[in-house]
Amino acid sequence: MRTALNRNLNQYQFTVRPLSKEEGGGYLVEYPDIPGCMSDGETVEEAIAHGREALLDCLEVFQESGRKIPRPSIAAAQWRQRLPRTLYSKLTKQAENEGVSINSLVTAIIAEAVGAKQAR
Questions:
Q1: Across the chain, what does the average pLDDT equal?
Q2: Integer Cα distance of 59 and 67 in angstroms
């Protein structure tokens, strides 16, 4: 059951925003298409990883309770980006150091930048 649900996780959009010191610091991840589905972490990458687990748990609850699983409001997008070899090398090394794929790392970097801009 988890395997089938796991394949669909990337279809759900999420937001990332920094948490204030009063909120405990770190970062918050929310899934707008799944009410109440959120998680946090000390880093953006950690928050996204925890968020994916929370999303999987939420989708399992929907499935186990016989409720209809909400569809993603917007399909995931994809684009290709050419990078200078030096930048690609740096991103690859950082992704390896953090134990994530380069796609996950770049998504986290973009999400953090967008969240920080929205928080201003």
A1: 86
A2: 10
The class level of CATH for 2-119 reads alpha beta
Q: Where are the domains of the chain?
A: 2-119
What secondary structure does DSSP assign to the chain, as a single string? -HHHHHHTGGGS--EEEEPPTTTTSSEEEE-TTSTT-EEEESSHHHHHHHHHHHHHHHHHHHHHTTPPPPPPSSPPP-------HHHHHHHHHHHHHHTS-HHHHHHHHHHHHHHHHHH-
Rounded Cα distance, 100 and 110, in Å: 15
Under 8 Å between Cβ of 41 and 26: yes
CB contact at 8 A, 85 and 47: no
Q: What tokens were used for 12?
A: 């759900």
pTM of the model: 0.61
The whole-number average pLDDT for the span 29-43 is 93
Contacts of 104 (CB under 8 A, 6+ apart): 45, 48, 95
